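Re: weekly structure request thread

Next one in the queue (477 aa):
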Amino acid sequence: MRRPETAAPARARLPVWRRLAWRLSASFLLLTAIGILLSGFLQYRAQDRYLRESLGSLLLNISRTGALLVDPSLHATVEATLTQDSAAYRRLRANLAAIQDENGIETPIYTLTGFDPQARQAHFMVTSRGPGLPGEPYPLVPELLEPLGRAFREGVATQTGIYRNQSGTWMTAFAPIRDANGRVFAVLDVDYRVDVYLKELAAVRRRVILHSLAGALLALVAGILLARQITRPVGQLSALARMVVEGDLSSRVRIDARDEIGMLGNIFHLMVERLQVSNRSMVDVLVRALETRGGEAGSLRRLADASLAVAERLELTTTQREALELGALLHDIGEIRTPEAVLQKAGPLTPEERRIVEQHPTWGVDILETVPLLTPALDVVGGHHERYDGGGYPQSLRGDEIPLTARIFAVVDALDAMTHDRPYRAARLLSEALDVLRGESGKQFDPRIIEATLAIPSERWTELLGLQSGQPLIHTR
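Done, posted below.
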């Protein structure tokens, strides 16, 4: 029953989400993407913090320096007169404009007085350029209240975070302006539009996204290659194990890996070989038992070899040949439930005895279907008494409804039975038996199988059926 080594069996059809290769690929992709995104997020946060701190420090330095250049006496004059036409205002405005130009600040800088946190407003006093008349109210957004209040109360330079108002997105620094007695009487306000800062952060975000996409693509490719490298032998072993469960012990796969998977493959092959030896031994025991009860030693092997000879002309797969051979050896195993008196009866059977005999294919299936390694024989065991025209038993199958292996064996079994003596009749000549087969083509037997059978030379049939010795052989129905 040994068959030549076959190609690796097909992969079991699992849903994509349950396949190990896709799970490994997805895991590799997910972990890589998470790593890249986490790295990018940390880079983004670090860049964000750096830009905030750098910009905040720059604005604080500008505001501190500018506050030192504001003359308290001139500022007091402007507060007293509240006009832009005074020499004091013009001198202070020129100083603030110089600070603005030296530091490349686009928006005006100005001094604030009269801070009222309850009303959320202060008052312009001196501006470097643009609007903002002395004493004009300046409404404050909530983000300005706390740092501006600290500058007035505590006399320290402060800064805001990034905030929005009706004019855009800003960051602001405040520095206290003191009189000769050290009292804070005004605050210098330096505003900075953070569009450039936001553009830099947007560029960082784009780099993070692009790097993440590139990394994810590379991870996907690497994950698929790695997963296939790992799971291909696992899939091959899984498919081979499935075939073993179904009774195919001759298939092999080549595992080239030199790791634990390769070791597993070698161990699995050794296990299958030992299982094959055990299975062959079990079948041999069953064959000897069946031949002891019903016929000559070697008669079942003869049927198996003759069946394989016909199969060679029909291009059966290796698996079908294995099933045909096993089925030929065990085809009448159901007769162990048939009384000996019925099996060996020399005369015609009664209707009741005929019904008993016709149950042996069903009994054979019942016996073998509990043994997974013997299940390939079920088609032959259960179908070798079906007729091509539908007049057989036990299921009255017709045409291609009958398994191909059962149709092949039915022809060989009939030829063997006709050319050997039975308790109820003498053997026929081989030529007569072949004529009978020819006449039953399309009736009892499949025409294609009859054609293949008749294509085998008579000399070969004489050898296959063991007719050279001329000894009468006893065989059951």
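The beta strands are 110-116, 121-127, 137-139, 158-159, 163-165, 168-178, 184-193. The two ends are 25 Å apart (CA to CA).
Next request, please.
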